[in-house]
Amino acid sequence: MKSNRVTELFGIELPIIQGGMVWISGWRLAAAVSNAGGLGLLGAGSMTPDLLREHIQKMKAATTKPWGVNLPLMNPATEEFVKIVIDEKVPVVFTSAGSPKKYTALFHEHGIKVCHVVSSSKFAGKCEEAGVDAVVCEGFEAGGHNGREETTTMTLIPQVRKATSLPLIAAGGIASGEAIFAAMALGAEGVQIGTLFALTEESSASEAFKTRCTTLEEGDTMLTLKLLSPTRLVKNALYCRIDEAEKEGASKEDLLKLVPPGSARRGIFEDDIENGEVEIGQIASAIKAVHPVAEVMKRLVDEFHTAKEKSANF
After folding, report:
1. What is the DSSP letter of 8?
2. CB under 8 Å to 3, separation ≥6 — which residues?
3. What are the CA-CA distances from residue 292 to residues 16, 64, 136, 313 (Å)?
4. Whole-number mean pLDDT of the chain?
5. Is residue 242 classed as helix, strand or coil in its secondary structure?
6. Cβ contact 195:221 at 8 Å
7. CB neighbours of 290 closer than 8 A, spacing ≥ 6?
């Protein structure tokens, strides 16, 4: 993989960014990805301010490579998170679930690079107006919270490429070197990977979560909760209750009762894989074993170069 605008922007060896996933992306995972040449991200969305500061400090002790923090901007603790990120001199912030306008200039004042996650070319254009340094376009194959447009990654990349001149990172359904090559062929300059890293040894997800997700077949995840915030979930007992309620015309209030606060924690972190939210991407059905991050990163690079060599014969 050659150096490009994404590697140069973040000072990384490989244009591979690890998704900042709730209950999954702690310092062990993020440090492992950074140490392997990518960009590791701490997932602040499931942390308290004190816990985020603790993980930042552990990251500093675990790696000398570039790393960052993912900040969902609709989180009630966002103001505190922003202050901590600035105080702790975090080098990179990936923002999501909200407008990047409010904090981008502030982050830049403190030398922090900003990348924002979008699900449409329209919002990619708004990111450029907001002054962010790069943009992630995430297709609806991705796990967890998702775009309402339900645009696939392969459809989204070229449209976002036309809509913005910013360095472009693709996400959603990417778990192989071949997929990285395909994303770059469509105009991406890097990739953000969630599901594959969620199912590594260093991920802080529970063993029950990893076991369940590595036994999934095609079609075992679905995008649901569209009245609230579209979320890709594994089909379990909770999903079946949600699906039944939605078919009967459930209101937002009804759905909120089915997925009270803490549902994602129970499904991802606390072994409740039947009655918690088990959030994972479609590509999980292609992942059948849990491996260390270093091994995963090496495989991605090898597969990328093999795909590139094969393309010479097209």
Report:
1. H
2. none
3. 16, 19, 25, 33
4. 96
5. helix
6. no
7. 199, 200, 201, 210, 214
DSSP 145-203: E--TT---HHHHHHHHHHH--S-EEEESS--SHHHHHHHHHTT-SEEEE-HHHHTBTT-
Reported as type and span, the H/E element at residue 231 is strand 231-234
**Lookup: tokens for 167:** 């360095």
CA dist., res. 9 & res. 19, Å (int): 17
Q: What whole-number distance in Å separates Cα of residue 42 and Cα of residue 25? A: 5
Q: What is the percent of the chain with per-residue pLDDT over 70, rounded to a whole number? A: 100
- Taken as a whole, the chain contains a residue count of 314
Nearest 5°: phi and psi at 101?
-60, -40
Rounded to whole angstroms, how far apart are CA atoms 161 and 158? 5
pLDDT at residue number 126: 87
All structural domains of the chain: 5-205+286-309 (3.20.20.70), 207-283 (no CATH)
pTM for the predicted model, two decimal places: 0.95
Q: Smallest Cα–Cα separation from 136: which of 185, 193, 182, 84?
A: 193
pLDDT over 90 at 221, yes or no: yes
Per the structure block, which two tokens stand in for 199?
């199912």
Confidence of residue 18 (pLDDT cuts 50, 70, 90): very high
Question: What's the CA dihedral at 241, 203, 167, 102 to 10 degrees?
Answer: 70
Label the pairing between strands 134-138 and 113-118: parallel
